Each structure stands twice: as C-alpha cells, then as structure tokens.
C-alpha cells in the first residue's frame, strides 16, 4: 500500500511565509522612501509657487515687502497658503524668510527643511537649489557667508 500525500509539508509552508515576509519588508521600505521624496517634491513645488507669487507682488507694489514680515511668512495670504501646504505635505517644516532689515525689500530668500534633512532654498533672483545643512554657504545681504539655511533675516540669496 502506498501513501499519497496531499498538501504541503510544514517546511514548505514556512519557507513560503519567510519569502513573503522578506518581500513585504522590501516593499514597505521602498514605500517609505517614496513617501519622503513625495513630501520633499511638494515642498519644492510650493516654494516655486511662492517665487511666482512674489513676482506678482513685485509687479504690483514695486518691492517685496509683502513676501516676508520680520523673518516670518505671513503678510501675503497666497504665500501663507503655499507654506501651509508645504507643512501639510512634509509633516513638519522649518522655514526661514529673509529680506533686508530696513527700506523697501528689493530681494528675498526662503529656505525650508526637507524630510531628508537637507534644505531647499528659493530666492528673488530665480535660484532654486538644495543643499545639506552642514557646510552649506548662503550669501547674506552683507556678502558674509553663513552656514545652514538662511541663518537669519539678513540672508536674501541662495547663491
């Protein structure tokens, strides 16, 4: 009499479950990286929209005074909405907005911290670039170099 086995052995089932577990962990890791990159892309797009809105402000007012208010971004509602969208896309965001301390603002720069830990900076000259927080040099209004993203409100360039 011969025994016919139907079904799978315990070892075969454990091997299949282990393979499924490994594949699942790889997919979840990739998904988290994609989610971080998507948040960074949203911040970059919103800061690009801020630059476009700032140019509309300059065309109507002749200066950038409504872009930044005492190193905060709150004077223009469209800019404030873009910043809020950046915050919602990234979960948490650190923004610094720079314009000259006195007189009409002829230039501005905004830097944001991305989920990856780097910074993204846009300014009134059309520069839009990213940099790591350590050793990054942004040109301040006085021409002095400052590390990290727009250390204070005197920084008006991402160059």
From TrEMBL:
Q: InterPro entries attached here?
A: N_methyl_site (IPR012902), Pilin-like (IPR045584), T2SS_protein-GspH (IPR002416)
Q: Name the source's superkingdom.
A: Bacteria
Classification via PANTHER family: GENERAL SECRETION PATHWAY PROTEIN G (PTHR30093), TYPE II SECRETION SYSTEM CORE PROTEIN G (PTHR30093:SF44)
Q: Where in the cell is it found?
A: Membrane
Question: How is it placed in the membrane, per its record?
Answer: Single-pass membrane protein
Q: Which UniProt keywords apply?
A: Membrane, Methylation, Transmembrane, Transmembrane helix
Membrane-spanning intervals of the chain: 7-31
A GO term from the CC aspect: membrane
Location (main, coarse): membrane
Q: Which GO terms are recorded in the biological process aspect for this UniProt protein?
A: protein secretion by the type II secretion system
What is the official name of this protein in its record? Prepilin-type N-terminal cleavage/methylation domain-containing protein
